[in-house]
Records
---
Amino acid sequence: MPSTARSSTTFKAVIPFNRQLSIPDNLELVTKAIKSGRSAGDGPYTAKCEELLSSLLNVPRVLMTTSCTHALEMAGLLLDLRPGDEVIVPSFTFVSTANAFALRGVKVVFCDVRKDTLNLDETHLSELITPATKAVVPVHYAGVGCEMDAINELAAQHGVTMIEDNAHGLFGRYQGKNLGTFGALATQSFHETKNFSCGEGGALLINDESLVERAEIIREKGTNRSRFFRGQVDKYTWVDIGSSYVMSDILAALLYGQLLERDRVQARRRAIWERYYRELRDWAGANDVRLPYIPEHCEQAYHMFYLVMPDLPTRTRFIEHMLSNGVAAVFHYLPLHLSEYGRRWGAKVGDCPVTEDLSDRLVRLPLFYNLAEEERDKIVAAAHDFDF
Ligand SMILES: *Cc1c(COP(=O)(O)O)cnc(C)c1O
């Protein structure tokens, strides 16, 4: 990993790949949440986050969770997945997209991604569905929508439940419809590295209303405490399996303040993304570098700006070059089907050729709210300065 001090004599500040979103006014909300003495989960700020997300996205019920990983685990519990079942995930994703389901003892099946968007390849998906397939988990990579019409149709045709891992895609749209509203369930992440962040946090978006009551129970340690708080039962008790997936109200306060500033945050990210695109387009064209592709029918969430380099050695040199110019540019996911744990389901080299190829060539540039104007200048200049 890049370090800010390479040695004591040649100290050089490096523009980090990410700085967590920080809005000073939010501290007031956090202080209020702490002082209220009501800092456990499901307090007033948790409710505010849930109501805001629910109305902005048009999702019937949103539950704040401790992480996106936990929201995905809740999805696995809600669908009653068990050994013998199969769940299809892209190979090019974060480990939690697969692990949350591996925890239930299912067979994880890895699908390749499209060359243009690096999103789940619907043609490969259609070959992977079997009678044992219970769920498919599209990931909207970089906040650009997957081909939801095709994936939806395949899932419906085969009676497969769709769960969107929307960790990158909050406020993105496909054909004018919000990402996170296509699956029976969808998950969000508010980890430090995401557009909006309370350190560690997530949400489960529930579009299939028949799953709401049990989701509340699973999130509350298997109890019907949520109904108790609403006065629907006079005492609460253990009614099902579950765990501790409720976000603290202190973190919800931090997140709520950020969500209120969503337009400002997204506009800033968009400006940075568009500047990179504008100022690197000719350079990329001349040097066999590919920039992100955003289909006409997708409004992206401005989560990430990546470059696809001509080959692995060039990418390695590019990362070194950027670092020596004070910029932390980083690669991304390694193919899950070839990972030590992923191989247990029998995958081998060549199963997901696009993932294998692009994973070696992709590199990401810093993109965060507090990226200063001079830092942006420096990043673009350093890229232009690279000797191919
Ligand atoms: C960040 C991320 C996760 C995990 O989110 P946590 O909130 O850290 O659990 C899952 N899937 C994808 C695609 C992610 O980018």
Note: The domain at 26-260 is CATH 3.40.640.10 (Aspartate Aminotransferase; domain 2).
---
Amino acid sequence: MTGRARLREILPPAGAGALCGLLAAGTSLAVAELAAAAVREEARPVNAVGGAVIDRTPAPVKDWAIENFGTNDKLVLQLGILLLLGLFAVTVGVLALRFRRAAALAVLGFGLFGAVVAAGRPEGAGPDALPSLAGAVAGATVLYLLVGPSLRMVPGPPGLSEREGEAPARVLTGFERRRFVVAATTVAAASAGAGLLGRRLNAAGRARAAASRTALSLPAPASRAGTVPTGAELRVPGLGPLITPNRDFYRIDTALTVPRVDAESWRLTVRGKGVTRPLELGFADLLERELVERRITLTCVSNPVGGRYTGNASWIGVRLAELLAEAGVRPPSRGGPADQLIARSVEGMTLGSPVEAVMDGRDALLAVGMNGEPLPFVNGFPVRMVVPGLYGYVSACKWLTELELTTFEEYDPYWVQRGWAREAPIKTMSRIDTPRGLDTLPAGRVAVAGVAWAQRTGIDRVEVRVDGGAWSDAELAEEDSVDTWRQWVWMWDATPGRHSLEVRATDRSGSTQTADRVGTVPDGATGRHAVVVNVN
Ligand SMILES: Nc1nc2c(c(=O)[nH]1)N[C@H]1C(S)=C(S)[C@@H](COP(=O)(O)O)O[C@H]1N2
Ligand SMILES: [Mo]
């Protein structure tokens, strides 16, 4: 028998087996989607496994992924998981032709793995295992039945196999093929139905949350931020606005599905060490308190030198220190037993901030509004924390639901368990926004402009130099507040050639940004931003 003939003989059953595997995988995902509607969306197997991958990703790899894929890192991860699942499905499907029971067990095992992973995530609970388990049982059953009666392979007609002593090749008979097509089509239709129903139900939950957000009108804050000083915004082409619009605001979190919390059912509890009056509040309770409005520049510890993971917004919220004081909390400097405040989100993220810092008089907020509207879902609706001067991962908990007073000694929150520093004040930094690296410019006057930030301290000076020459003072925009970034501009007489532009900032404590380059791990990058441009 020629190789080609043999291929023709093996391929149809192998193809049918692969198809069975894919159908079983599709059924699993569809049933899991349906089950997730009863538990929560985060418990979908792909979400759970993806989340677990994120949880286990070492800090440098996470930063690499963020830098290369940006906010698409999550999409890439999910596609990767689906691809692996597809490969597994095809393999198991083909093997099922020979080892039906073992293949079905492998599917069960795979689902069990998903279930254990889902329940074992930092925020995981028993019910999270359900979608993976239900999906696994459905997938294994489908595989077992599909490969069984309809796809049993029978010995082919004599003569198909030529060599002496070799078992006759096995083929699908016509009748069984028909039966298989009917069974496969039924399974495909049923799982598409289950999947669509699951999607619908999940979408309904999201719609409820969206309706609660749309219905919301935030009361006017008792203490306003005031209008932005006219001199604070330089309006240089290529330089972004002083206040970052919500749609342009960076997003960094581990959530594969953005939590969509219904404001009406949202609760916040305050408990732990030194809490003499534990609190439990609903969203309406929060809105009844005195609201303040503050412009604060948020910065991510993963922001590389020159990076864009920083943004400035006008936040509306209640003062965190007041709420804590009401619960009886005293900072360590006044004898309080807790030095760490753990903020816990609805999906189980934990971020730890120094109690001393959030109660030292700075505008640490439980924010409900961002740039004049309720928080967008991706930025933490209905309530998040914002603390000026601390990197996001030690302060800016989104989808907040619990505040627990504890000690640094006693508990390491999520990022600290993964190698990041326990305490991380934002480092003084400056960035060139225009011109952009590798721009080609005409010789003559060029506005070099950007932003600089040193939250809590304020920016005192920004200097620019060309090709490593002498530093020149840039012109600083008027300061909005010490907690917001400050724009700057420097007029450059550009001469033909290739030039490097470099910036450094000095904050009001007198310290100048260091030239020493360190990476983002464990407590934020240092070094100076430089861009190379061509002038002709
Ligand atoms: N629940 C939750 N909150 C979170 C995070 C997260 O992963 N989950 N990431 C933090 C980090 S690292 C940063 S920098 C800020 C980013 O806030 P943004 O996405 O609104 O810009 O949120 C913080 N709050
Ligand atoms: Mo971050």
Note: The pocket of molybdenum atom (ligand 2) is lined by residues 252, 300-302, 392-393 (CB under 6 Å).
---
Amino acid sequence: MKKETQIISVGRDKKWTKGVINPPVFRASTMVFDTMKEMRFATKNRAKGEMFYGRRGGPTHFAFQAAIAELEGGVGTALYPSGSAAISGALLSFLKSGDHLLMVDTAYEPTRDLCDKLMAGFGIETTYYDPMIGAGISALIKPNTKVLFLESPGSITMEIQDVPTLASIAHQHELVVMLDNTWASPINSRPFDMGVDISIQAATKYIVGHSDVMMGTATANEAHWDQLRENSYLMGQCTSPDDVYLASRGLRTLGVRMQQHERNALKVANWLKSRPEVDHIRHPAFDTCPGHAFFERDFTAANGLFSFVLKEGDLASVTALVENMQHFKMGFSWGGFESLILGVFGIDRIRTATQWDSCKPLIRLHVGLENPDDLIADLEAGFARFNQALK
Ligand SMILES: *Cc1c(COP(=O)(O)O)cnc(C)c1O
């Protein structure tokens, strides 16, 4: 079955929906039981979808968890109040003082800060590695290395990793392999077939899809599900059923939204490629993007998020480009229906295992669901302002 078909029916078990189409909001903290027997049964089965206490979730959560687990291809999904909480929840569920973590150099910046600021203080050591390291990862594995963390494509600079090679070497050393899979969403790759143990989504992005909810998911395979679920529960991680409802509503249209984001972004990227100001395109579907061959092999489609590098430019000229756009708004995050633009400076500050040439400015776009011709006209006007400011 194709993923677009699957997302229509996932998580719609009548056990949770009572027959209505989309799982409704079921609000709860306390459950009351009539008998000791019922209470003991719920306690014993609290991790298996029996209502027990609000923090463990209710039908709205169970339905959405089942949906994401099935789409990602794992056995269970833990929910978190943000993508960042899913990352910290997964890492802290498997790392303790004295352990060593291998973290991709192109990780989402707050993930890097978590390692350098919070986890370092807990006595967890991090080594950053080049996203293109491939089989070279084995030289960085130490006796106390416990987790290999990937993010593919990398944040901002979009390098695509050789996930199957990295995962298979990690497993020879019994590491837990975690992947920030947000760019692929749950429909454009098969993380568990590539050897990933825990696949993380910032559901805030394409799953929610409407820029109005923060949420994260971490999906585990059989071997890692119990530990992920229990430790995340111990850290008090839970989500509001209203937010989960919106995420599961967003999920139903993920297939068509992704197709349109991809089509629009490819049109914009192809236009950018012909611009004299542009050095190269960092879109996984373009051969100028590092790891492009892994994109071709491991992903079924792209989406609306990519970057491009300018031949030259300074703060003033890039500012002239990105300010006063009609459709591309300046803001963090991505994955909603709207277009966004970021002029990114200081990439060298958030890279330690690789080098980034900061002389050439990078622009990141999230191409939304507007008509791409309007977006191209918007960028064309932006380049006119850019060239004016460069003079
Ligand atoms: C946005 C993002 C996150 C964090 O998600 P939040 O919900 O904003 O905390 C993590 N990883 C990637 C790749 C992201 O783009």
Note: The CA atoms of residues 32 and 146 lie 41 Å apart.
---
Amino acid sequence: MWRIRSSITRLPRAEVPPEVPARIHLDKNENPFDLPHGLKKELCDELSKIPLNRYPPAYPVELEEKIAEHLGLSPENVIVANGSDELIGLSLKVFDGNHVVISSPTFGMYDFFATLEGVKVIDVPLGENFELGDVEAHAEGARAIFICSPNNPTGNAHPRKRIIEVLETGAPVILDEAYVEFARESNIDLVKDYDNLIVLRTFSKAFGLAGARLGYAVASEETADYLRRVIPPFSVNSLSLKAGEFMLEHLDYVRHVIRYILGERGRLYREFKEYSYPSEANFLLMRLDAHNFLLKKGIAVKKLGGRLDGHIRVTIGKKEENDELMSALREFIDLTMN
Ligand SMILES: *Cc1c(COP(=O)(O)O)cnc(C)c1O
């Protein structure tokens, strides 16, 4: 007699943005730029040398070393996996405790992986200015307190002081820095002082490798050692590993793209200041119910719900794409506000 595990019967399918037919995709916080032709060719030449009949390295030590060098940390602190999403699930296997704490509105995958692990999700909603609430009240017995900074979909980063206060409870903290390359500061150095901290990073946003599914976790040597134990060997494919190494060898290009996106973010923010929240990420949260209007013009943005009903999250695209978005938004504002 077989039975479906009860935690699975409660598990909704992970919420992913629906694929919509659009000319301009500003809905998934992707980097608008694929590698320029010359670099893409160079990467493909390197990929063509990889023997596909052979397994990748059991553990991606080489990429971990390159990331550690990039961060000024030791390779012992870095764990590579298939996207930081996967690392959310793996991190939850490391700690004990029967609940996790999230602060809505935030990234949906925390809820998904917690439910998958069969632990309860306690939501301490963000405050009026999207600041962290009293998550410390639920620190006791927590398997993890999730802090997303900069937060998706609100775009604000949490002050370092506040993050330290949460760490001081001693509860495990999973700090998601998926957008940190667009922010003023990182808190990754706190892994040197706090064994209860795991920081998640990704190649999907600033590094432009969303299609390669590559992410990494950073933790103290001791915590990283435990996290390594729950990672199956041979899990990251050799093509993605090469792509990640390639990007770290072309940091000037990556920095150029980041500066471009920051410039465009500023332009969009200034133009629609009245309707936008300040952002330290590659997107803007806007108080405009323009999702359907934009879609009819071939522009996909993310429609938000719940407390952010009537808001959209707009990924910063290429200049031409942003120009089209801006003129469509002006038209929307003219039509609805007058
Ligand atoms: C995009 C995003 C990620 C990245 O996930 P990957 O699995 O590495 O692509 C992680 N956290 C947040 C909050 C995100 O928005």
Note: Residues 251-271 form the longest helix (21 residues).
